[in-house]
Specification:
Blueprint: H1 10-30, H2 36-54, H3 61-84, H4 96-99
Length: 100
């Protein structure tokens, strides 16, 4: 089981925030016609993805951003299949509570 970091220093939090903003803009550009429910689910998933990936290794903007965008593309493909079947979207990434 992967071990997630519980605390981040201020510089790491600044990097995480900027990665989140960049990935959020990417997500919004890729989902121009998303409804409010879909957009909210995607933003929630993005938040989980960013912190799950940030909690693993040393935080560097470019590396983390690339990993988040790649994971986001995988998530979008998965969520698209789930939404076609009209099932509730449950994030397929472990949260901090689940990892503990």
């Amino acid at each position: 089981m992967m071990e997630l970091r519980q605390k981040f220093d201020p510089l790491e939090l600044e990097i995480v925030e900027r990665v989140y903003e960049a990935a959020s803009a990417y997500l919004e550009a890729r989902n121009l016609y998303a409804d409010e429910k879909t957009a909210a689910e995607d933003e929630d998933a993005l938040r989980h993805i960013v912190f799950a990936l940030a909690g693993r290794d040393a935080i560097e903007f470019d590396t983390l951003c690339d990993k988040v965008v790649a994971a986001l593309d995988e998530y979008r493909l998965w969520a698209k299949r789930v939404r076609v079947r009209d099932e509730p979207v449950v994030i397929p990434f472990p949260t901090v509570d689940e990892a503990a």
